[in-house]
Amino acid sequence: MKVLGKVFLYLGIFFIPVGIVYGFMTNFDEWAGFPALLVTALMCFFLAFFLMFTDKKLGSQPMDNYTGEIAESAGEYGFYSPWSWWPFMIGLTCMIVVLGAAIAWWVLILALPIVAVAVIGWVYEYNRGDHAH
Question: Are the C-beta atoms of residues 26 and 34 closer than 8 Å to each other?
Fold first, then answer.
């Protein structure tokens, strides 16, 4: 995590002058690139802070050892349901939401009930059916 924190810190430092130069080159008339580059720098700083802060709490990780083996990072990474269709449903609703933002806002309003069904279905997946506990 230490290496990733430094990468995002350097990226954030890089995006600030790039955004300012881009703003001067466009005479600050084009309002898509200049703010986007500055917000990208801000997001990189957020990620760098989070990764460096988390690294102090966790200590040395196998990924920070340059001479480490891949097998050192083996272990439990979490749980994923391979039979679940809810992540696919969430992906489809995200597609509809993005299309609604690009095409018309009423499409986004039509997608909200589908989003609610998909999120509720994914959250309560293990509370009903064959895999209830």
Answer: yes
Q: How far is CA 107 from CA 70, 86, 96, 103, 112, in A?
A: 46, 21, 7, 8, 9
Query: Distance between CA atoms of 49 and 27, rounded to whole angstroms?
Result: 32
3-state SS of the chain? CHHHHHHHHHHHHHHHHHHHHHHHHCCCCCCCHHHHHHHHHHHHHHHHHHHHHHHHHHCCCHHHCCCCCHHHHCCCCCCCCCCCCHHHHHHHHHHHHHHHHHCCHHHHHHHHHHHHHHHHHHHCHHHCHHHCC
Calculate the CA 98 to chain-centre distance: 16
Cβ–Cβ < 8 Å for 9, 48:
yes
How far is 133 from 114, CA to CA, in rounded Å? Answer: 26
Please write the tens of the pLDDT for every residue from 50-106: 999 988 887 777 777 778 787 887 877 777 777 888 999 999 999 998 888 888 888
List the Cα angle 11/12/14 in 5-degree steps: 65
